[in-house]
Amino acid sequence: MATQKKEGPRLDFFSDWKYSPAPESKEHIRLNKKYDLFINGKWQKPTGSKYFATHNPATEEKLAEVADAGEKDVDAAVQAARSAYEKTWRKMPGRERGKYIYRIARMIQERARELSVIETMDGGKSIRESRDIDVPLAASHFFYYAGWADKLDYAFPNRKPTPLGVAGQIIPWNFPLLMAAWKIAPALACGNTVVLKPAETTPLTALKLAEIIQDSGLPDGVVNIITGAGKTGAAIVNHPHVNKVAFTGSTDVGRIIQKAVAGTAKRVTLELGGKAANIIFEDAAIDQAVEGIVNGIYFNQGHVCCAGSRLFVQEGVADLVIRKLKDRMETLIVGDPLDKNTDVGAINSKQQLQVITNYIQIGKEGGAEFYQSSCELPKKGYFVRPTLFLNVSQSHRIVQEEIFGPVLAVQTFRTIEEVIEKANNIPYGLSAGVWTDKGSKIFNLTGKLRAGVIWANTYNKFDPTSPFGGYKESGFGREGGVHGLLPYLSL
Ligand code: NAP
Ligand code: MG
CB within 10 Å: which end of the chain, N or C, has fewer? Predict the structure, then answer.
């Protein structure tokens, strides 16, 4: 039978003091008023002469205008990529390709501070996250795949790995530079050329990456970066000379893409939505687990496909975990994403704020017990307080659907069989977390949870050598590691 762990004294003292503001400087940031399309190594105006604005979601200020690429621009980018593929890139020895990729990695490191600040300004995530996670990981993806460029024959012995051609790559707004790195680095290492489209609300670091690529001397047309809306993405997917589509984004758009490529020879990988279970057993190190819950759902505004958005706590420790979690939520600093103390930054856009607010309303109307931290929110910009729903059941929409915000749905369980059943009982299968003192329990669960990535006694840890990808409606194909080469090769 489950036993109830004793509660320790409440730690109220931390709510009585505050950090002084510690904003990261943006003095060194140089943004153009207007950005054109990066096609064939040059900046080209969009044929329709249309531009749209990208904003800072923390201040609602306009940061720059970026080009809205139409079908003709997509065609020009694909032609450039095709020609670079045939004339230069596919013929270049792997060791030479590797040198360019290394150079890009080093240049990302050199410009790390600038890239982190722009990532935070354009997308709203905390500077701590862009500085410590997004930008270093983006550089390490380029470093890692640079190393594979001349070793493909060793990765796949006796199988004659050959590139596919032009890769059309479409990425979301939650990790703009990192997702660009996940896509571009393995494609180049394998000898493919690229047309990449960043998300509408966060195009700036991809455009800065285009500057880096230009400065790196990469042959013209090997990487083309074009901005635009969903229809630009669709034009890439539907272009007859694209050989491979790599998409990261929502399951709904993933479905559209899968239909669009059905019956063509195009290869496709889809990295889609998630609704991860974070599972805390009674024998877990509770304080660490609470930190893992917070890291999994709040530090990143819940804007992570693998966010630990469903919490399962074993009954004996449920009260203790919830009490400690609420205490910890009170200490979270929500606000200016450029402040180095900020834990929870801005929601990426007004539309996403609306989505999250709707789900909070749905959770309340569904009868779940609602709790939010009591922090003040900035007057301007898009922010949400860290939110909890307790006593939810499997059928609640806030348990089944991806919210993509700092909203956690909590359930309890008694047995390992029960938690496996509940954790698997959703359409998604991207990631999960397990917190326990027993290695045997970890291995038991990892074999039975239908999730592509399972963290044990930690959460949201990434490394370029480790493959990442989903089961079920979370998509298919793997990015990262040796597995991440496979989608870009014919063997
Ligand atoms: P989204 O709406 O699906 O958009 C993703 C990208 O696709 C954007 O660049 C978007 O352009 C473009 N797009 C929109 N409609 C398209 C169409 N019909 N054809 C081709 N491209 C189209 O997703 P999001 O809201 O940006 O990102 C959040 C989602 O991404 C979440 O579901 C999250 O779980 C998922 N995600 C998954 C992973 C993973 O590795 N599994 C990683 C990160 C995020 P616009 O921006 O112009 O609309
Ligand atoms: Mg923006």
Answer: N
**Residue 253: CB within 6 Å of ligand 1?**
yes
To which H or E segment does residue 112 belong?
helix 112-123
Those residues whose beta carbon sits under 5 angstroms from the ion ligand 2 are 54-55, 122, 201
**Residue 415, class by beta-carbon neighbours within 10 Å (0-12 exposed, 13-18 middle, 19+ buried)?**
exposed
Alpha-carbon distances of 462 from 182, 454, 459, 482, rounded to whole Å: 12, 11, 9, 15
Closest CA to 104 of 133, 152, 146, 132: 146
> What's the gap in Å between 400 CA and the centre of ligand 2?
28
Ligand 1 pocket residue status of 173, Cβ below 6 Å? yes
> What pLDDT does 463 receive?
96
CA distances from 237 to 7, 74, 179, 441 (A): 55, 10, 17, 43
Cβ–Cβ < 8 Å for 342, 334: yes
Q: Are 297 and 309 in contact (CB under 8 A)?
A: yes
Structure tokens at 185: 């680095």
pLDDT tens profile 156-210: 999 999 999 999 999 999 999 999 999 999 999 999 999 999 999 999 999 999 9
Q: Does 479 participate in catalysis according to the annotation?
A: no
Average of per-residue pLDDT across 131-144: 98
Residue 227 beta carbon below 6 angstroms from any ligand 1 atom: no
- Say which residues have a Cβ less than 8 Å from residue 383's Cβ, sequence separation at least 6: 58, 334, 335, 344, 346, 347, 353, 377
Of ligand 1's atoms, which has the minimum distance to the CA of residue 175? 43
**Domains of the chain listed by start with CATH number:** 34-272+474-490 (3.40.605.10), 274-456 (3.40.309.10)
- pTM across the whole model: 0.95
Helix (H) or strand (E) holding 408: strand 407-413
Verify whether residue 375 is a known catalytic residue. Answer: no
**pLDDT tens by residue, 451-476:** 999 999 999 999 999 999 999 999 99
Q: Is the CB of 246 under 6 A from ligand 1?
A: no
The active-site residue, picked from 271, 282, 402, 479, is 271
- Residue 258's contacts (CB-CB under 8 Å, 6 or more residues apart) are 268, 270
Which of 170, 195, 242, 255 most suits a substitution to test ligand 1, by most atoms within 8 Å of the C-beta? 170
Long-range own/partner contacts, residues 358-366 (CB < 8 A, 24 or more apart): 359/397, 359/398, 359/401, 359/403, 359/405, 359/407, 360/384, 360/387, 360/407, 362/397, 362/398, 363/389, 363/392, 363/396, 363/397, 363/398, 363/407, 363/409, 366/392, 366/396, 366/397, 366/398
Record the tokens describing residue 63, joined without a space: 């940061």
Beta-carbon count within 10 A of 367 CB: 12
Residue 371: DSSP 8-state: E
Instruction: Please give the structure tokens belonging to residue 203.
Output: 């195009």
Question: Is 248 near ligand 1, meaning CB less than 6 Å away?
Answer: yes
